[in-house]
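Let us begin with a simple case.
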Amino acid sequence: MAIAWDHGAGNRIDVAGQALEYACWGPAPGAAPTLVLLHEGLGSIAQWKDWPAALAAATGCGVFAYSRAGYGASDPVALPRPLDYMTREAIEVLGPVMDAAGIEQAVLLGHSDGASIAAIYAGSVSDMRVRGLILMAPHFFTEADGLAAIRQAGDAYKAGDLKEKLGKYHSNVDVAFFGWHDAWTDPAFADWNVADAIDHWRIPVLAIQGRDDPYGTLAQINEIETRIYSPLETLILDGCGHAPHLEKAAQTQAAVTEFCTRLFRLEREDVPFD
């Protein structure tokens, strides 16, 4: 295996010329499947909080997370980010990260931008290691209300306490924030759309959405339902915003655990996924 599979802080891997922090929980690849966590647009390893450890305990899977370049303790990136930064992450970085981690069987579990990256990867890269997708608050296209919420976040960063809060998690907090904010609020980004990735999925998918998410509506889930050719389960959470794993932790963890249990039982026994 290419990396040390341990739970300590300060682990780093070099991928695509950048040093990225990573962390592991539960059994190593080879002993069990691995959930690969892909964080949101302002996220990092630390912002998953205790959820990775809880997932490893509940599912029996290993859990692997990394902070993308520009986030957490990973190397910074040059700004502005290219407007196709999520596609670049999916095509150029995610596969080599999984190679370096020695991943053998994986479920990609992405949140927000991370869900979009997972979706693009599954629809663009032929990778037999990836057995399923779990997408929390995914984005396939922009929505006017979501863009307005991002602009409001910009105001809170410049004039409120958001910068101080995020600074606890990111070594280069301005890079983390403006790399995300300035891409999404660029006028040219209004036409961003990666929904064609859905057409190419051939693996089971669990999509989770908070009904009160300010950054995206059920239109994102409807897009999956309209286009998907593979098995789909959805969890729509009332009274939940943008972070189902934190706001509705028990329900979200239960859905993830059931999905993974059934998925890997299917792998072992060749039974229908319905």
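The second case is a distinct protein. As before, the sequence precedes its structure tokens.
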Amino acid sequence: MKNRLEQLRKARGVRQEALADALGVSRQTIGSLENGRYNPSIVLAFKIARYFGMQIEDIFIYEEEIE
């Protein structure tokens, strides 16, 4: 799953540490999300969407794998 988290965060001038504090996670979690190494829980995805005033689908892009 891809996401626009880093793009949105930087556009608003928010540091990883500040976003992490606002969401109740570590800065490393934000970094892992931004680098695509970690997919958020549904609760964290909702918190992120609410923080940015957006829908989850506007931040996280699910690309279905075709077999």
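The chain has a mean pLDDT of 95. The helical segments are 5-11, 16-23, 27-34, 42-52, 56-59.
Keep these points in mind for the review questions at the end of the chapter.
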